[in-house]
Design brief:
Order of helices and strands: HHHHHHHHH
InterPro entries: Cro/C1-type_HTH, Lambda_DNA-bd_dom_sf
Helix content: over 70%
Largest sheet: none
Protein name: DNA-binding transcriptional regulator, XRE-family HTH domain
Number of helices: 9
Number of domains: 2
Distance between the termini: 60 Å
Radius of gyration: 23 Å
Structural class: mainly alpha
GO molecular function: DNA binding
Keywords: DNA-binding, Membrane, Transmembrane, Transmembrane helix
């Protein structure tokens, strides 16, 4: 990413130390170091503060990075979608298996849905790991801002997704499990 070299270049032009720049942006010196070394990426609010502080446009500050971000978002969204499907199908498979196991098999067969749930949990972990490693949340906000779209819509969509993942997924799992148990008890 070019932002690391841009931050270093403009910081040196203004003769700021990392400590001084960190103080002006209300972040730690280590954060500035991480940005300059490409280990992390500033969020959209910090980028706006940097553009004002350095007296350059946001486009100048992140030039070249927007296309890289779009490519990164596209590629990693595909990867996340694969893991999300593994997670959903694993949850569904485990919940459907509970009915036949409870009605027709030894209780020790409950280990099988447990293993499948472990796969689903691993897939969920991979999705979160991809988001964190590739800064996808930050990148999506920066790209949205650069295209003139509202970043507030991204935040609002996130809270809805969080609620659905915390409430909707377990509720669906329990509902499918109960339906499966009922249907297989009729057989």
């Amino acid at each position: 990413m070019n932002i690391s070299s841009q931050i270093r270049k403009y910081r040196n032009q203004l003769e700021y130390s990392q400590e001084e720049l960190a103080h002006k942006l209300y972040v730690s010196r280590q954060t500035i170091s991480n940005w300059e070394n490409g280990h992390s990426y500033p969020d959209i609010q910090t980028l706006l503060m940097l553009s004002v502080l350095f007296d350059v446009s946001l486009d100048t500050l992140v030039k070249g990075d927007i296309e890289i971000m779009k490519t990164e978002i596209s590629g990693q969204n595909k990867n996340m979608n694969r893991w999300a499907w593994v997670m959903v199908l694993s949850y569904f498979g485990a919940s459907v298996l509970v009915g036949p196991i409870l009605n027709f098999m030894n209780i020790w067969w409950m280990i099988l849905p447990g293993i499948i749930m472990a796969v689903a949990t691993y897939a969920a972990h991979k999705v979160e790991q991809i988001k964190k490693i590739y800064n996808l949340d930050t990148y999506e906000k920066i790209v949205a801002f650069s295209e003139g779209r509202s970043t507030e819509k991204l935040r609002a969509g996130k809270s809805w997704k969080d609620i659905m993942s915390l409430v909707g997924v377990p509720a669906a799992f329990i509902l499918i499990m109960l339906i499966s148990s009922y249907v297989f008890s009729l057989i």
